[in-house]
Amino acid sequence: MPRYVALLRGINVGGNNLIPMVELRAAFEALGFTRVETYIQSGNVVFDAKRGKKSALVASLEAALSETFSYAAKVVLVSADELARVVAEAPAGFGSEPAVYRYDVAFVKEPLDPAAALAEVTTRPGVDTAHAGTLALYFRKLIEKATQSRLPKLAQRPVYQSLTLRNWNTTTRLLAMVSEPV
Fold it and tell me: Is 182 a domain residue?
């Protein structure tokens, strides 16, 4: 049975769309998913699903979560193999200097393409960088100059609605969780 990570966009952020993780797990189990686990409060759900089209899984999740929790749910769904690819495609050295840089991964909601999303990103030389992989964008921001970063301006662009960000530690922890054997 395939293992997935559902990355829910915009829950438990800034006091909006507050969803307790126990209720989120129950909603996934009610849909017939098994081995359901959540990680931290920002909408990361690891689960097993019977084989099926990924687009159908996303549609059913968004519909059920929207109805259950009364918000416009947006879900980026990645398989275990896809998440392994996201981690493997990170730029060289990505995540290696956490005392110097903040590292974030922006997962791209289909049908948006990471290269098209990258075209909307502006960076400031010497402060931040952005790279596109096949499924995600990779952001690195110099901590001591974080206030000079142009990356936060991405939130003002329409493309931001098709992205969901996770820090590098969360991304690698989710990979460990989704890779756990049965």
Answer: no
User: Using CB atoms within 10 A of its CB, is residue 3 exposed (0-12), middle (13-18) or buried (19+)?
Assistant: buried
How far from each other are the two terminal CA atoms of the chain, in whole angstroms?
Answer: 10
> Cα–Cα distances in Å, from 79 out to 4, 34, 39, 161, 177?
4, 15, 16, 21, 12
The model's pTM is 0.93
pLDDT tens figures, 19-60: 888 999 999 999 999 999 999 988 899 999 987 789 999 999
The CATH number assigned to the domain holding 163 equals 3.30.70.1260
Angle (CA) 70 113 56, round 5°: 45
Same domain, 72 and 87: no
| Residue 112 included in any domain | yes
pLDDT in tens, 141-158: 999 999 999 988 888 899
| Full residue range of the structural domain in which residue 74 is found | 3-80
Note whether 67 and 96 are same-domain residues: no
User: Cα–chain-centroid distance for residue 61?
Assistant: 15
The number of folded domains in the chain is: 2
